[in-house]
Specification:
three-stranded mixed sheet; alpha/beta; 8 strands; five-stranded mixed sheet
Amino acid sequence: GNLRMKKYLVFNDIHYGAPHGLWKPEGWDARDYQDHIDKRGFTIENSIYLGDNEDLNHCAIDRVGKHKQRIISAKLLFKENFVLGNHEIGYGDPDNRINLIKDRVLFTHGDILFWGFDRAMKYRNKNREGSNWLRRWLITATLDQLREVIQPDLSDGKFWERARLEAQMYGCHTIVCGHKHPRVAIDETRDGLRVVVNPRGVNVVEVY
């Protein structure tokens, strides 16, 4: 095997609390991130919270407090391996960390790469906690079904421009992100830069 190969357990885009959340409140999987880490034989050092796992934006208004607690617990658990997405809406990390660099790999949620900095920041600063029934079930759930149909790809030149700039800035050869909810992982290399876009959920990512 490759001696330099490392495996990371990456949590991204679970959207717990939203209508399209992968975890349901009654399921074992929503109990604790630590359970998942233990079950898969990883340690906290090689496990990463990569954003949009707790959905403060689209959870029910009366459950905002519960999800805030869960974000704080996740931050305490993952420590520096905690990267905010755009659905935690800036909560739970005073540093508002959007990038994590490990072994020359850049871990970032992905909204900045796909949308550009201005649009991503505008969304992150929306600060609307919780959504009513209509917004949750009519708008959010419908939009998510559309996203399922229209699968993302990495054909956008602007995406690669942004990715290359970030990679150069941090001296990285690989970028791991989520945000786009592909059905299966997208793993592409262009001119020596590898980009992995994770599907929703708990993903094992191999980096070299």
